[in-house]
Amino acid sequence: MSSVLTGPDLALPDLHTPRAQVLLAVADDNLVTGHRSSHWTGVAPSLEEDLAFSTIAQDGISHADLWYRVLLQGAGFDGDLRAGVDALGLGRDADGYRHAVVCERPPRDFAFTLARHWVHVHVEAARLQALSGSNDAEVAALAIKLAHELRYHREHADHWFARLTGDDGARGRFADALAVVLPESFGLFEPAPGEHEAVADGVFPGGHPGLRPVWLESAAPVLVTAGLGDLVPADDAQAPAEAAGGRAGRHTADFTDDVWPEMTALYRADPGARW
Amino acid sequence: MTTGSTTVDPVAVRRAVEDVPDPELPPVTIGMLGMVHDLAVADDGTVRVELLPTFSGCPATEMIERDVVDAVREVDGVDAVVVRFRFDPPWTPDRIDATGRERLREFGIAPPGGAVPSPRPEGRPALPLLVTPSPAADADPRPCPYCGATDTVRDSDFGPTPCRDLRFCEQCQQPFEAFKTF
């Protein structure tokens, strides 16, 4: 992996282990989607949605924070935990991030945001379910805790799915957004580097590829019921080339020239800063 | 009094920890919220406190950690304080005690566990398409914290903090907040 910018006297553990790479992928999906969700703070279509997406953004970034903690603590890190978490979240070069490309896409319009939110939250629910069965006690405990909290996100996403697919005016725009999001979402099921070892060791039962059939089994009937069966991804569907490779650190300009410089600017100006 | 040789009173430590107020809801203490999992006093005067975070996205967590350290340091004989947050067992709202529930209600926040029938007003559609079955709003009804009426509705899943949602009382026409359950 590329370098990590840290404050003085901070020694991070080895981030190349399969466990670390898997947890970076889990955390980074949430961190980057969280930053994209925060776009709506102050400009959402209604006050309720402003609060909703502000909370969703806050939860995403907080969940990332906790996964970085679990990563560090399980790797024997004994330094300042706050400084270590900040270094992981904000100190990596852009190609050190392991999130799926779909997470870094700009919010575009509210339809696109809700389409990505609907997919992301249900894939996340499946992932937390899988991680709840981890043989790593800290990983399992955090997954169980966060799965409880995801309930409100799921209800919010499902509510909007029902509303937008049931409204003649909104339906076309929402379907167009889903048609972009669904293929790109297959980047979420890419394995992190070395993930097969984390799967074999029991850290991440089933791994990211294993989430795909679980998610599709529940999402496909909903799309069909909503009359959007033609959007159900094929069994052999893959992410379009540009939306693949996120877990290996290949990101688009949406990340390298947009989210990444913005979210890391302060940290890079003053590594190790406390706030 | 000489530190290091003083015996630390575990009861005093527990009281100090449990009396720390929630930074966002000062009438409620972390003891009432059921956040205190375990306390241990070592022979060298080091106190270890294990807390269960409520909502993981709660920005008050770090303030609580600091406040607990400050409170325990005031106890006679305490040499050092180590606070650790743990996720097992996961904190849930049923850990809030009766006093905490009443204080929340007085603060205008409907506490969880208020199982009352709540009619679904006209024009509020059910959610027919759910990927994952989850309890609908009317499965988690709350009486109004102001007038006690039970015909209240949940207007939004997300309130001003990660731990609260938004409700409305059809009786006194008052919007209010409710502590989330999960």
Secondary structure: elements and pairs:
The complex is a heterodimer of chains A (275) and B (182).
Chain A lengths: L17 H20 L9 H28 L6 H10 L10 H4 L5 H22 L5 H29 L2 H17 L10 H6 L6 H19 L27 H17 L6
Chain B lengths: L9 H9 L17 E6 L4 E6 L9 H13 L6 E6 L12 H9 L2 E2 L41 E5 L7 E6 L5 E5 L3
Protein name (chain B): Phenylacetate-CoA oxygenase subunit PaaJ
Organism (chain A): Egicoccus halophilus
Pfam families (chain A): PaaA_PaaC
Describe it for me?
Chain A: One of its GO terms (biological process) is phenylacetate catabolic process. Chain A: This is Phenylacetic acid degradation protein. The complex is a heterodimer of chains A (about 280) and B (about 180). Chain A is mainly alpha-helical and about 280 residues long. In chain A, about 65% of the residues lie in helices and about 0% in strands. Chain A has 10 helices and no strands. Chain A is globular and about 60 Å long. The model of chain A has no long low-confidence stretch (mean pLDDT about 95). Chain B folds into 2 domains: about 1-95, Fe-S cluster assembly (FSCA) (GMP Synthetase, Chain A, domain 3, 2-Layer Sandwich), CATH 3.30.300.130; about 110-180, no CATH class. In chain B, β6 and β7 form a beta hairpin. Chain B is elongated. At the A-B interface, α2, α5, α6 and α9 of A face loops of B.
E-strand count of chain B: 7
Q: For the record, what is the CATH homologous superfamily label of the largest domain in chain B?
A: Fe-S cluster assembly (FSCA)
Text of the CATH class of the largest domain in chain B: Alpha Beta
Strand content of chain A: under 5%
H-E order of chain A: HHHHHHHHHH
How would a crystallographer describe the biggest sheet of chain B?
4 strands, mixed
| SS summary, helix count of chain A | 10
Number of helices of chain B: 3
- Rg from alpha-carbon coordinates of chain A: 18 Å
Q: Could you give the order of the helices and strands of chain B?
A: HEEHEHEEEE
Kindly state the percentage of residues in helix of chain B. 10-25%
Structural class of chain A: mainly alpha
Number of domains of chain B: 2
Going across the major beta sheet of chain B, what is the strand order?
4-7-6-5
Please give the number of β-strands of chain A.
0
Distance from first to last alpha carbon of chain B:
48 Å
- Low-pLDDT sequence parts of chain B: 115-135
The N- to C-terminal Cα distance of chain A equals: 27 Å
Domain PaaD zinc beta ribbon (chain B): 138-180
InterPro entries (chain B): Fe-S_Maturation_MIP18, FSCA_dom_sf, MIP18-like, PaaD-like, Zn_ribbon_PaaD
Domain MIP18 family-like (chain B): 12-81
Protein name (chain B): Phenylacetate-CoA oxygenase subunit PaaJ
